[in-house]
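pls ignore typos typing on phone
ZLM + seq
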Amino acid sequence: EYDIVRPKGRTVSFHANPEMEKHHFGQTHPMKPWRLTLTKSLVTSYGMTFAMDNYTTRTATYEELNSFHASDYLDYLATAPPEDQPRDVDNPDKEVKFNLGGSDCPLFHGLYDYCSMSAGSSLDAARKICNGQSDIAIAWGGGLHHAKRSEASGFCYINDIVLAILQLLRCYPRVLYIDIDVHHGDGVEEAFFSTDRVMTVSFHKYQPEVFFPGTGGLDDNGPKSEHNPGAHHAINVPLNDGITDEQYAWLFKSIIGKTNDSFRPSVIALQCGADSLAGDRLGRFNLQVQGHGACVDFCKSLNIPMVIFGGGGYTPRNVARAWAYETAIAIGCQSKIPEVIPAHAPWREHFIHDTIFPTLEQILGEPRANRNTQKRLQDIIMHVNEQLRFVGH
Ligand code: ZLM
Ligand code: CA
Ligand code: ZN
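k done
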């Protein structure tokens, strides 16, 4: 294999339930759980498995899901008939109320199992951080940031991130949540709107009425009532189409560096949605694997325990590239792994479209016009700096 050895000092763990990858949202639905299989295949082919603790995770229990989600919602999620089965005539309103069964959040076969597996992996990762067995715990099957207490939203049914953060709060005073998915991390932000123990920072494409979910403007920083300790503890970085690696990495380091200095988190929860990459089927940005990975590398350099989640990502080969590369960053072996995907890698042919040799880092995508001016990005940084004057421990 390659010269990848277990690094001294920091323990990295990988948390997954391979059964999750077998679920289908529907033929043409953009969310493909199979991208997790492709990711794991790259991670294994590069020999990274030997440099991590690997856990096959159990499903989350009803009680675990109930620590955030409402019972009536969970009961319906557990029993709702799949789309192709006869509808429950007693409950026509429940699907509307819980936003289940539309084209974004279909009721597919095994939905409740899929959700419990995603949450199970994220909770397992959080527990390994809590008990000190891991310094960086990776759960690519998690990151479903839109789910609300009693409502599915944007391909997300169970908010595994909120569950994992609640677990982290049992052992750590302060959690910094960072979200680099191209969509606004609204569900996580809302769940912690009234506490100063969790600070949320989301970078996203922002264009209300046009781009989902339409929230996350620069001035949305948590309800500013006099008695709300959570006021000022939500940071939003609204961006336009086509942002580049250089701009994004510069913004990220500036904002996360200053947030870290003010908030002094005890642990980081990082959502790594890969739909912010160039060429994503739903995305709008121009990020390369390197620019996306630079965010993970910067968080790692802060030397704080960290849970890493997946999230969006709708061009499966690019999702696998980014998450395999970021697994390498977590381990610290990114400069040691060869650029060309190993000959023995299963699914290797999936990576051949883009270049003559299938490569890990090179992704193809229609370059999108960059609509982010340097002036606007500077204004965002100014606003965040002002906001951080209200945050301190
Ligand atoms: N229509 N099929 C990101 C979640 C984004 C809401 C507009 C549905 C789609 C999309 C579904 C096969 C994360 C909206 C869209 C068409 C109402 C969204 C099924 C294509 C398809 O071909 C599709 C029939 C579907 C859904 C596109 N949906 C694109 N964008 C967003 C949700 C989730 O990445 O942040 C985290 C995992 N929904 O814009 C509509 C308003 C439904
Ligand atoms: Ca985001
Ligand atoms: Zn997304």
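Residues 12-388 form a domain with the Arginase; Chain A fold (CATH 3.40.800.20). The mean pLDDT is 95. more later
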